[in-house]
Amino acid sequence: MAFEIVAACVSCTACEMVCPNQAISAGELHFEIDPGLCTECAESYPDPQCASICPIEGAILDELGDPLNPPGSLIGILPQVAA
Ligand code: SF4
Ligand code: SF4
């Protein structure tokens, strides 16, 4: 299993520094996770270290494509529901 970094990533480098498996590196457009190295931190941490430090909502997705930091989770403001 592995997570994925998507276009919302602002390439701040924070996750690269905390990944215990050196699974994160700079890609052509944004940082990327090597699926062969990412263990979802399951072996050594209660939470994925990349998602714990990432300041951008929606930048890292789980294996189902759901954001680890969903809208509203970091800034505390839930997105408006369309009328
Ligand atoms: S979940 Fe853990 S192992 Fe996987 S990329 Fe994030 S910090 Fe690295
Ligand atoms: S911490 Fe988030 S925004 Fe920063 S490089 Fe990693 S995925 Fe991109």
TrEMBL record:
GO molecular function: iron-sulfur cluster binding; metal ion binding
Organism, as annotated: Marinospirillum alkaliphilum DSM 21637
InterPro entries, A to Z: 4Fe4S_Fe-S-bd, 4Fe4S_Fe_S_CS
Phylogenetic lineage: Bacteria, Pseudomonadati, Pseudomonadota, Gammaproteobacteria, Oceanospirillales
Classification via Pfam families: Fer4_7 (PF12838)
Keywords from the named record: Iron, Iron-sulfur, Metal-binding
Superkingdom, natural source: Bacteria
Protein name: 4Fe-4S dicluster domain-containing protein
Domain spans labelled 4Fe-4S ferredoxin-type: 1-29
